[in-house]
């Protein structure tokens, strides 16, 4: 960039000196050409810049830690002329560990069929966390390389560096069914059972649940609703601080055992303290979608070396708590 500006300045100075020494047609032509070329280059580039839009996209929403994350940086525009040069400065950050790296991307040439210039940038994320890619600077350079025109950067995009699902069995304390507590509740999906309750028919109830003998006596449809004991809730807790390798190991076991509980149809709660504010963070994990939401929140919080342990906090919900220790043990 600096070399092109110096070269353009030297060309203009040479044309001006030639014009001073020679008043002929050629001297006039060279001087006006040297003066007009930068203006023409700017006027040709400016309409393209006004229609230029940047974009970021992740190749995958989530990958296991240790994978190579790819982000596509692109510029879309409308025009008959190609963009001379686009310069982008990207910043990739692991929101959990605080690791950062910067990349410079230069785009030029003819766009694809959708009117976009694009390039891939990669980062090998060794630890868990939310990998966020941001455009710190987006600029378009004119054809002569003299003028630099800024373009509004696009919003950032993210991908999750997920824990690894290990081949670990559930701890003995989590294998058995939880203890029954409290009054009976309707069993989801119904089915056979010794305990049941009677209630009026509601639209959508299976025909097999209708109590025909009692319905004939009452002149209205009555449904037999199967009941089951309420189960004490399960809460998996962990500390969101320590070395990166320790936290990676804890999150690996958290994902492994939380997935195993879901495979058994057992909902549970995941809880931890925000490592900086001390705010209690807890998510009810009832299906794979809520597990994804929980992991997204876990991987977005920072991981300082030290913090306050959740083991010292009182549980807000009833049930059994299992604390995942960095050494691989589970504290009940």
Written description of the protein model:
- The structure is a single chain.
- The chain is an alpha+beta fold and 332 residues long.
- It folds into three domains: 53-162, Immunoglobulin-like, CATH 2.60.40.680; 172-179 and 232-331; 183-230, no CATH class.
- The chain has helices at residues 2-21, 25-50, 172-175, 212-218, 244-263, 288-300, and strands spanning 53-58, 62-64, 68-76, 85-94, 100-107, 116-124, 129-141, 148-150, 157-162, 180-186, 196-200, 222-231, 234-237, 268-273, 280-285, 320-324, 330-331.
- The strands form four sheets. Strands 2, 4, 5, 7, 8 and 9 form a six-stranded mixed beta sheet that branches.
- The two termini are 64 Å apart.
Concise structural overview:
The protein is α+β, with helices and mostly antiparallel strands. Helices cover 27% and strands 34% of the residues. The radius of gyration is 32 Å and the shape is elongated.
Q: What do we call the CATH topology of the largest domain?
A: Immunoglobulin-like
Can you give the helix content as a percent range? 25-40%
Total beta strand runs: 17
Distance between the termini: 64 Å
* Shape, per Cα inertia axes: elongated
Which CATH class of the largest domain applies here?
Mainly Beta
Strand content: 25-35%
Could you describe the largest sheet, including whether it forms a barrel? 6 strands, mixed
Structural class: alpha+beta
User: Low-confidence parts lasting 5 or more residues at pLDDT below 50?
Assistant: 177-182
Radius of gyration: 32 Å
The average pLDDT value, as a whole number, equals: 83
Query: Which second-level CATH architecture of the largest domain applies?
Result: Sandwich
Instruction: Describe the oligomeric state of these chains in a short phrase.
Output: single chain
* Strand and helix order: HHEEEEEEEEEHEEHEEHEEHEE
């Amino acid at each position: 960039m600096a070399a092109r500006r110096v070269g353009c300045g030297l060309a203009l100075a040479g044309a001006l000196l030639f014009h001073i020494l020679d008043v002929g047609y050629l001297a006039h032509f060279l001087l006006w050409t040297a003066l007009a070329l930068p203006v023409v280059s700017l006027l040709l580039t400016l309409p393209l810049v006004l229609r230029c839009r940047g974009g970021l996209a992740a190749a995958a929403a989530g990958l296991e830690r240790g994978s190579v994350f790819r982000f596509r940086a692109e510029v879309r525009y409308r025009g008959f002329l190609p963009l001379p040069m686009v310069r982008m400065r990207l910043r990739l950050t692991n929101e959990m560990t605080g690791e950062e790296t910067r990349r410079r991307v230069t785009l030029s040439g003819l766009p694809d069929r959708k009117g976009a210039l694009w390039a891939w940038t990669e980062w090998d994320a060794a630890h868990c966390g939310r990998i966020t890619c941001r455009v710190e600077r987006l600029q378009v350079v004119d054809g002569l390389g003299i003028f630099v025109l800024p373009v509004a950067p696009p919003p950032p995009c993210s991908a999750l560096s997920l824990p690894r699902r290990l081949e670990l069995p559930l701890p003995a304390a989590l294998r058995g069914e939880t203890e029954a507590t409290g009054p009976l509740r309707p069993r989801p999906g119904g089915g056979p059972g010794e305990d049941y309750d009677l209630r009026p028919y509601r639209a959508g109830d299976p025909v097999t649940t209708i109590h025909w003998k009692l319905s004939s006596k009452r002149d209205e449809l009555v449904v037999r609703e199967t009941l089951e004991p309420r189960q004490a809730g399960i809460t998996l807790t962990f500390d969101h601080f320590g070395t990166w390798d320790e936290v990676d190991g804890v999150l690996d076991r958290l994902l492994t055992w939380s997935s195993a509980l879901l495979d058994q149809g057992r909902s549970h709660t995941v809880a931890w303290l925000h490592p900086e504010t001390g705010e209690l963070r807890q998510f009810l994990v009832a299906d794979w979608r809520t597990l994804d939401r929980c992991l997204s929140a876990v991987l977005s919080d920072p991981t300082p070396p030290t913090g306050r342990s959740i083991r010292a906090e009182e549980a807000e919900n009833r049930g059994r708590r299992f604390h995942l220790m960095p050494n691989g043990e589970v504290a009940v």
